[in-house]
Amino acid sequence: MAFLLLTFFILTAKFKPDDPVAVDTPASISDTKLPDKDIMTISIDKQSRVFFGIDGQFDREKMLEFVAGKYKVGFTTDEIKQFSLVSSFGVPLGNLRQLLATKDKAKFPQQGIPCDSAQNELTDWIAYARYANPKLRITIKGDVDASYDVAGKVISTLQEQNINKFNLITDLKVKPKVL
Amino acid sequence: MADIDTGGGKKVSTKVDMTPMVDLAFLLVTFFMLTTTFNKPQTMEVNMPDKTEDNKTMKVAESRTTTLVLAENDKVYYYTGTENPEVKLTNFSESGLRKVLRDKVKTVKDPIVIIKAKKESRYKNMVDVIDEMAITGVKIYALVDITPADLELLEKAPY
Questions:
Q1: Distance (Å, rounded) from C-alpha B159 to C-alpha B89?
Q2: H-helix or E-strand spanning residue A140
């Protein structure tokens, strides 16, 4: 019996997807758990760089094809395959090829996805990701020290697409006693 | 049980002691059980007001609304109403913002809190302030963009 359980847990335990960014999330009293699939994560790291990622390799491929079509960038099948393995990325579209060609992706200097009003690639990524998988739940994973300047831009990017409901990823903290 | 005759007349038991193996197995079971459940990150759901729709404006009593402005260095300014309000300063401590909000909840029926964040504030401030809403039980709140008028108001504030 015990061994049956043991094998079950070993098999179901999913390895944590490697994140290119270290994000220290703020704490909140909310204890809603995040579902484990259909998630879009917009991460904002300490230096206020924006990273984007969705789960599902097939959806990633579809999303990249849509974006490539819009920006008239042709990706090779190999590059698309590479892209489907990247859990989260933070480069402008112009540098994406270089990132995909790099073997050790953690070493590649990622400058973040542009999301200001002059050039907003984030909005395309979000739109096409939702096109590829309409069930996506949008989550923002911000660092404690990320500036509101960028966080506000990300939120208004979402709002422009009429996404008014999203989740913020937080750590758990004990609810203080009511006075 | 069938014991092997070692010839010398001595009987050697063939039973293996299973205790350490079972111990280890249970240890691993507990470990995997705990890690799988704690792995999932917590989330906080946020609902924003609809921007695209023509907002129907609704008149509410000035005393019901409190505006919080998140500023640099974890400072929070707050004021009630909109007509020449008295801007006060507080912080994220228990005796600061939480007390302010608790007092509001106690004294005003269905208070409305408007949250505005300056560009200099941190992401943590935003999460904290939304969290404070949940802690103190403020039901109606909205995160809106800061306006030049607000900044001007803060400039004039004596802090």
A1: 7
A2: strand A137-142
Position B6 in a domain: no
Which residues in chain B are contacts of A33 at CB distance < 8 A?
40-43
Domain extent for B115 = 62-156
Instruction: Tell whether B135 is covered by a domain.
Output: yes
Give the predicted TM-score (pTM) of the model: 0.74
A116 close contact with B: CB closer than 8 A: no
Locus of tokens 């070493």: A107
Return averaged pLDDT per consecutive 10 residues of chain A, 179 residues in all: 74 62 76 78 83 83 82 79 80 78 74 77 82 83 83 82 81 70
Number of alpha carbons in the 13 Å side-chain half-sphere of residue A83? 26
What are A24's two structure tokens?
């220290």
* Four-point Cα dihedral A54, A55, A58, A60, nearest 10: 20
- Quote the CA–CA distance of A152 and B121 in Å, as a whole number: 10
Number of domains into which chain B is organized: 2
Write the burial class of residue B127 (CB in 10 Å: 0-12 exposed, 13-18 middle, 19+ buried): buried
Q: What is the ipTM of this complex?
A: 0.74
Q: Mean pLDDT over residues B27-45, rounded?
A: 75
Supply the pLDDT for residue A37: 77
Q: Which residues of A75-98 are buried (b: 16+ CB within 10 A; e: fewer)?
A: beeebbebbbebbbbbbebeebbe
d(CA B70, CA B72): 7
Residues of B numbered 76-115 whose beta carbons fall under 8 angstroms of chain A's beta carbons: which are they? 94, 98, 102
Of A96-100, B31-35, B79-83, B111-115, where does the model show the most confidence? B111-115
Give the start-to-end residue ranges of the domains of chain A: 20-172
